[in-house]
Amino acid sequence: MKNTIKKAISLVLVLAMSTTISMPGLAATTHNPESIIIKQSDGNYKVNNLGTSAGVKVTMSKDGIYQDENGNLFSKVKDDLFIPVKKVAIPLENIQATNAVIKEQNIQKETANYILDVIANAKKNHNHIDSIQVYLPQATNSRRTYKGYGNKTYFEETVATNYHSEPADVNQSPWGTYKNSVIKGIVEYLIGEAVDKVTYNSYSIASIFASAVPSSVPGTTEVTHYAQLFESKTTKHTYVVEDGQYLFGSLTEKASGKFENFISIPGVSGGNKRGSDSKISNIQTQNYSSADKRAYYGYVSGGWVERIESYQYGQATFNSAYSS
Q: Which of 17, 256, 304, 315 could be bridged to 250 by S-S, CB 3.0 to 4.6 A?
């Protein structure tokens, strides 16, 4: 049964990109950037479906967290359910400071290990963590939970990581050939115990470097296209609460960001030219919007993991903020 479930799950990706040509075969996922929510008796909030203006207007940030006009934060744990959260910045200057905040905030073991792995992976791969924020359910005297799939009680911690890679060569070719080419973008992802890849888009080189390369550059000139990945990733850790125990159920992710494109042209004043960015938005694993359901089936076997691993951009591979 476990293997059947794993085989049945696929990655759903939606990428809205500039300077790209869309590839067919990707299912569409929409995100409502604004909602009107109404407070419930348990302190959580539900979407106002009454057709009135009653409630609190919240707007989504790039972390996938919603905020009202007073700065109060909310995490959308189900299509119609929001919970109040607080934002905790994770210090990155040294591991002692990181562990101190993890302990102080009583962050769950699996979430804490993920944070530490993100930091360690960045160092190993010579990439750069710009910030890590953790959004924790906000409650006065206890941990805030919610009722979800199968009438179970769930607890959720969300990690938002902003990071950028070192520059990497995407291609080296004569300009006359390269300017008319299209390069593929591929994402590698982990679903359960399986790793797979999906071609999500193609990129028009002529569009990326339309204003960067002077028309006087000979077609025989050997140019080098290089890029940096800037990624904002949101990772949900969803736990099933039973008999006072917080049992890891699922890890699901979404990401957005961009590739910053540059081209090195020998013999041209300035040498390196900046192209337009290839923007990435709304990449998410299939169960990101139904993490409680995935946790319901995952917690009995130690938890289910859906993770974005890396991006292949032309001839370069860029690790995600966390890669196994």
A: 304
DSSP 13: B
* C-alpha to C-alpha distance for 161 and 255, rounded to whole angstroms: 9
Nearest to residue 317, comparing CAs of 229, 256, 257?
229
How far lies 81's CA from each of 155, 242, 296, in Å? 13, 21, 17
Q: Residue 267: which of 211, 206, 222, 208 has the closest Cα? A: 222
Please count the other Cβ atoms lying within 10 Å of the Cβ belonging to residue 277. Answer: 18
Distance from the first to the final alpha carbon of the chain: 25
Pairing of strands 153-164, 168-174: unpaired
Position 144, amino acid: R
What is residue 75's DSSP assignment?
A: E
Asked if residues 238 and 249 have their Cβ atoms less than 8 Å apart, the reply is yes
The alpha-helical segments, DSSP class H, found in the chain are 2-8, 95-104, 109-124, 175-178, 205-208, 291-298
Q: What are 130's two structure tokens?
A: 């710009």
The alpha-helical segments, DSSP class H, found in 267-320 are 291-298
CA-CA-CA-CA torsion sign (154, 159, 160, 165):
negative
pLDDT tens digit at each of 324 positions of the chain: 444 333 333 444 434 333 333 333 223 345 678 999 999 999 999 998 877 778 999 999 878 899 999 999 999 999 899 999 999 999 998 999 999 999 999 999 999 999 999 999 888 888 899 999 999 998 866 789 999 999 999 999 999 999 999 999 999 999 999 999 998 888 898 888 888 888 777 889 999 998 899 989 999 999 999 999 999 999 999 999 999 999 999 999 999 889 999 999 998 877 799 999 998 877 889 899 999 999 999 999 999 999 999 999 999 999 998 766
Count the alpha carbons within 13 Å of 55 in the hemisphere toward its beta carbon: 20
Contact between 215 and 33 (Cβ < 8 Å)? no
